[in-house]
Design brief:
- By secondary structure, the chain is mainly α.
- It contains 20 helices and two strands.
- Strands 1-2 form a two-stranded antiparallel ribbon.
- It is globular and about 80 Å long.
- It starts with a strand and ends with a helix.
Length: 497
Amino acid sequence: MNEKQVSGDNDLYDDRTTEDAENHVQLAAGDAAVLAEKDDQAATQTTRLYKRRWIIVLLFSFYSLSNSFQWIQYGIINNIFMRFYGVDAFTIDWMSMIYMLTYIPFVFPVTWLLDKKGLRVIALIATTLNCAGTWIKVTSAKPNLFAVTFLGQFCCSLAQVFILGMPAKIASMWFGSNEVSTACSIGVFGNQLGIAIGFLVPPVLVPNVEDMDQLAHHIRIMFYITAAVATALFILVVLIFQERPKLPPTQAQAVARTIPSEQYSYTASIRRLLRNRSFILLIITYGLNVGCFYAVGTLLNRIILTHYPNEEVNAGRIGLTIIIAGMVGSLICGIWLDKTKTYKQTTFAVYFMSLVAMIVFTATLDLGLWVAFITAGSLGFFMTGYLPLGFEFAVELTYPESEGTSSGLLNCSAQVFGIIFTICQGKIIDKFGTLPGNIFLCVFLLIGTIMTGLIKSDLRRQKANHMARAAEGKTTAQQAYGATAQITEPLTAASHC
């Protein structure tokens, strides 16, 4: 697809502050007025959408799947790995929480590297680490090698740092303005599908058998399958994954490409983001929501087995239900945002429904497994469906800052709250039971819902695209007027003669 649009490179940013001029371009509130005054100076740039964009986002989605599967593969059969390695429940919980802990110190250097080196380098590092982690685990299927399996899990958790912030960046760099939310949802979709498979497959591949040699055999098979998939995806990334399209997909991206790299300062970008009140509120609310999801996912085996003993397989199926429903919710929300651009309203509605679903799940957990399946599905639809909403809303609130940086800060918040909630809820469940543990999460979802309502809907990326289209329309009209004048002027002169 080809389209001619006005970039408005100079017009959008003439009112920037001295600090912004030295570091990075800031979209200011007065940009529309500046653009209206200087339309005649605007230059046009060609934008194009390439079919390859779908290959890029799907390939990312698949290697994200491979990594997220491993996040939950220990936790969902918590009791089996406890017996196999001879460790307690809290130690196995750390096999999931290591994903959260690793993210926090590494997110800032990784987002800096993403801005400096680009998508392809980050993709190569992610798949290399993920592949290495899976093969380390293959060697750890012995009861005395827990340290080795933890090392493998650490490598995979480090790979995750190079994955979580990518969906919004890929969507912005490859997709048109009416596709970015859907593309971001597809990127998140892979992560969710991996978690879904992580809930479903380990209880099937690793049954709770008494014989330790047989159990080691089952665990080794699971590790070999994971390693084979990760290796195949690493090879595909090396051969196929591309940094960015030759021509930008949108005028917003065209403007971003004109910013000289020497004018960009990562630390100045972080400072600007942390002065953005609406974005700070979103960081907190996103962390609360996703942190609750991480806690539920990590502790789901313990929650279900407390009420329904010896139901490891059904615990995995309930986890699968949460994620499948969430994937549907993610795609629906992404398509809805592309059609309506109602970021604030949609984010608030989904957040509120996450709270309602968590309350219902908590209140009905004792009513039977089939009820747990239904309520867990509704919880997943809204809580997991919120993930791409947060990414896209952040990009709108922070444009033209790097999508990787804003996504990184959101994910960092999610990991911090995820660790806190998982530890606290786990201790509450051990001491008081699942009901107080789930009520603990409901309280924080209520706080997050209230804070979401306070976020100001300042859609900067949409404004940039609208102003570019308006400038293009005015330029086209001026060109048409000039052409008409050239035709009519000789005729007028002839009539006077």
